[in-house]
Amino acid sequence: MSEENKKELIRLERESVIPILKPKLIVTLANLIEHGSDKAEFLKLCKRIEYIIRSWYLLQFEDLMQLFSLFDPIHGAKKLEQQNLPQHEIDTLEHKFLMHLFQVMDKSNFKMATQEEIQVAHSGQYLLNLPISVDETKLDKKLLRTYFSVHPHDNLPDFSDKYIIFRRGIGIDCTTDYFFMEKVDMIISRFWTWLLKSTGLRHILFRKSSAQHQNNVQSNNGLSIEAEQEDIYVERIRIENMKLSLPNLLSKITIQEPTFDRIIVVYRRASKLKMDRGIFIKHFRNIPMADMEIVLPEKKNPSLTPMDWVKFLVSVVLGLVTLVGSIEMPKADAFVIFAILSGLIGYCAKIYFSFQQNMTTYQNLITQSMYDKQLDSGRGTLLHLCDDVIQQEVKEVIISFFILMEQGKATRSDLDLRCEELIKEEFGENCNFDVDDAIQKLEKLGIVARDSIGRFYCVGLKRANEIIGVTTEEVVMKAKQDAPST
C-alpha cells in the first residue's frame, strides 16, 4: 500500500525558452518606466531591436528554405532532377541543410531527446497501453548516421541513425474518466501478482521484468543531471498506483502525465530511388511523455509481443499443472483451486479485453495526433521555427537591456539572476535565462559595453536609439503613412 500512495515525480531541467508573448512583455516593461518620454524611447528601441535581429537572420533563414526546397518530400525530387547535380554535391547540400536545421533548433531552444529522457518517458503508461514499434525497414539509416559522424552529439538515443526527436517546453495533461476497463485490468493484474507471489511462481516467471521495472522506477528520479536547484518537478499520476477502494473503483478519477509542449521529428523514408531524398519534418504539440510513441514515424500495427505470448502460455501451463496437482492432493483445498482457476480465466480475459480496448484507444490517439496535435510539417514547420528564433532573441535582448537600464551595472551571473527574477516576479514564469546570447547581441548592437572590471552597462535610451539608427522598416512605414490615399 505504501508504494501505491507514494507520489511519482519526474525531475525536469528548466527550459531556456521565455514563455511570454512579446507584446505583453514589452508593454509590461514599458509600464514599469516612470517617465513618459523614456517610455516612448523604450518602445522605439524595442521595435528597432526586432528589426535589426530579424535582418541578421534573414540571409540564414533564406538559405535554409532554399536548401529545404531540394529535399522537400513533395517537390524536392523534381527540383533535384532539374538541377542535374552530381551525387557528391547533393550530399554536401544535404549536410549543409541539416547543419542549418540543427542550428535553428538550438536557437529556438529545442533540445534533442536523450536516451535517458526516452527511458523515463517509456517507464510509465498514460492513455496508450500498447507496445508501439517502428518498422525500421521503411526508414533510411544513412542520412543521420553520416551527419552525426561529422557532428557528434553526447548521449544520442539508440534510434538516432533513423530519426531524431526534438522537444521543447513542459506542461501537464490531465484526463478524467471512469476508466472501467483500466481499473479491471489493474485489479486482475494485482490479483495475478498476489497469486504468483503466494504460489512462489513470481520469481521464476518475472525475475527479469521485475529488474527492468526497478530500473524504470529508479530512472524516474529525473531526466537531467543538472543541479537540483535548476530543476522542476512534475507529478505523474497513474491508475497502476491508485489506492484500491470502492469509491475509486466506482467513480471518476483523474490521471496526470507531464507533456512535452512541442515535439519535432526529423527522418527520411527508405527508398530505392536515387533522387528520392525527401526529409520529413513533423511538428506536434502537447504530447504526453508516456505516449511519445504516437509521434514515431512509420509505426507498425500494434499486436501482442512474442514475450506476451510466452508469458501467457507459460502462465497457463504452470497454472494448469498447479491446478491438477491441487486436485490430486488427498485433501484438496477448494479455495486454492478456485483461486487458481479464477486467476487463469481472469488472466486470459485480461489479455483479450485489454488488447481490444487498447487498440481502440490507439486508433483514437493516432487520429488525434494527426488532426489535433500535429501543428505543421515541412516548410510550415521551418517558417515557424525561424519566427520562434527571432521572437526568443528579441525577448532576451529586451529583458537584458531593461535590467541594465533600471538596475545599473552587473556581472554576467548577476544579470542572469536578475533577468530570471524579473520574469518570475512580473510574469510568474520560471526560465533558465540565456544571458550569454543576449549580451553577445547587445554588444553587437553597440548599446552595451563592459567596464574595467568586466561588469556590463548600457547606454541611455536616447543614445541607444541613435546608435542603432533609423531602420529600413521605419522608412517604409513612414513612406506608407505619408503616401496620399487614393
UniProtKB/TrEMBL annotation:
Q: Does the keyword Transmembrane apply?
A: yes
Keywords in alphabetical order = Membrane, Transmembrane, Transmembrane helix
**Is rRNA processing given among the entry's keywords?**
no
Q: Where are the transmembrane segments?
A: 309-328, 334-353
The highest taxon in the source lineage is Eukaryota
What protein is this chain from? Answer: Aminopeptidase
The opening ranks of the lineage are: Eukaryota, Viridiplantae, Streptophyta, Embryophyta, Tracheophyta
